[in-house]
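For consistency, the fold was encoded as tokens, which produced the following:
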Amino acid sequence: MSPLPPVLARIPRPSAQGLRWIAAACLACLFLYAAGFGAVYVLFSDNLPDIDELETFQPKRVTRVYSADGRHLYDFKLENRELIRSFDEIPAAMKDALISVEDRRFFSHWGIDLHRIVGAVLENVKRRDPTAQGASTLTQQLARNLYRKVGTQRSSDSFGDLLATYARKIREQITAVHVERLYTKREILVMYLNTVFFGYDAYGLKSAARLYFDKEAGELEVEECAMLAGLLKAPNSYSPFNHPEKALKRRNLVLEEMVKAGKLGAEEAARLSREPARIRRGRRSETYGLAPYFVEFVRQQLDAEHGGKLYREGYSVHTTLDATLQRIAEQHFNTQIAAVQAKVDAWVSRQDPAHRPESDRAVVQGAFVAIDPATGDILAMIGGRDFSESKFNRAHQALRQAGSAFKPFVYTAAIDNNRFPIDVYDDNSIVVEEWDGTIWTPENYDHKFKGPVTLRQGLKESRNIIALKLAQDLGPDRVAQYAETMGISTPINPYYAIGIGSSDVRLLEMVAAYSVFPNRGIYVKPVPVSRIEDSEGSLIYQSSPERHAVLRPAVAVVMTDLMRSVMDEFGGTGRSTRFRHGYRWAAAGKTGTTNDYRDAWFIGFTPHLVAGVWVGVDDPSIGLASQAGAAAALPVWARFVKQVYEEVEPYHGRRRDRFEFPEELVEYRSVCMDTYKLATRYCPNQSKERDPNAIRRQEEDPEIFIRGGAMPEPCPRHGVDDSGGRRRRRF
């Protein structure tokens, strides 16, 4: 055994009794320490999170919303936070910078750094400021971030603001010990970098890397990690956006601390400290903020189903919206709304000042919806001209009269109840007495009467008198039933005025109802979301089209042919789609205009798309300066479908597709153009044979009928010869 050092050798050895006293004193100190620790724990542990909370805590995460083609549309969030999944995702330089400047003994302490506490106390005494320097470890900071009440709750035994500060620190320390018992150091560091605030709305390292450098966390350079670590002390004060010089100085201080901690060479630190702060604010996807009315529509639906989880579980919501179609729709919508607004402004300026509406009341609004008829997917949605000014979504919230856009329901009821496209009704002046005793005299749009017209002509030219007579003939209750069956949920008043769209409807429901026609009688419920994945990428929702057969297929096919006349034939209210806007491919639809031009509609469909437009003023007492549906609404639809079929796949490749008229459902018969009955071989003026390759319908085409159904009578006029004798039939 080596001899004791001379200094120690001169110290007298304690006696046995002295040793007993020393042992007793040590035990007493340990007892007092334990008692003191126990007293502190009892005093400050009330209302702390329990162990279960520590084990189940999950930070709030961002739910991201995507278009059908994977474009980022928006985020639903309480905090802008993206999570690091594992310790290995953290750049080594970030670990070194953080530990060097915030908690150099992180991997050796047990949640509390006693050495640092003593140093802080001595420094505070030296400065005569009891709160001048803190001694929080990363684990304590994590405890404060995880459990806000740790940092804000005052103990009932605290005295004043000063003692409250120390009470908070003690609570943090107690919670930090619990955290260290439950998690490894690697897990604690991951949780810390997922919860810490880096300024602005960035929580967590991933969000900060994108905000300040437009990078993924794994791409950060050493000096960038140093700047982010330096931000944590005071994100607003050291913001490189607002205080670049202070941010640079703070970054260089962190580099120095990394040298002192042995994490970075002095020469490398000196070199990096001379580098400028290369800040590049994170850029969102070019589609971020696209389709705000649609995104809010999705949020409302998901919020009703998922509640608060939508803002904290980090879902990935994949919608049905087609970003390309949405942009095309917005482009033409904005152009047309501006044009309509200019005419309304000019009209307002011409009014008598005593009766002139205020300019802020005469703001033209509009809405647009496009749907895939086969799946119900909502491909585009516009709910107004400016979401920042008005969140009211006119595509699915506004209730407006449909006007003539409602007439296809009347004609559907007629065709399904043994009326025929060649049936003739007299377009003349009538007086209508409603069931409630109201008496009124309806007029046509052009204030003219045409006398006898067929149902086909009545629909294509939108003759109000014909629609009203059909409603009288069929009964308004029956018409309302067809509208409801086809997807209209708003109350439909059972008056004869139903024939000209006097009831309020929603654009989204109208577009979905029109989808029944190209779907051969199948209603498909509109769908805004295709699937939802949780934060781990697991599928938690997959849409499934909700389909219902609501019409006989043959009725839908006949109606499709009737509505082609609106677009293709002379006098059709939608014919400007062809000659003015240049859309050449298969299409069918219907215009709509209400009294005093308060509402302008156009809803149309191709074999692959159904889209609808409404234009009007929110104040229904203000009209559109004599702009009907064909002038105010149809141009949006026509320009939209034209560009889609000219430029966008798969529509461009399918632009020559035609509506199908299956022989097992319908048949074509020649019609005597003199009597509008089925032509006999003797009728001199009858419709020609149908061209099976034609995309558009011609006025002289044979008429369409339901195969196997009731048929109109043959022509009675041309069944006899010129001498009056009956012609002998040839068999």
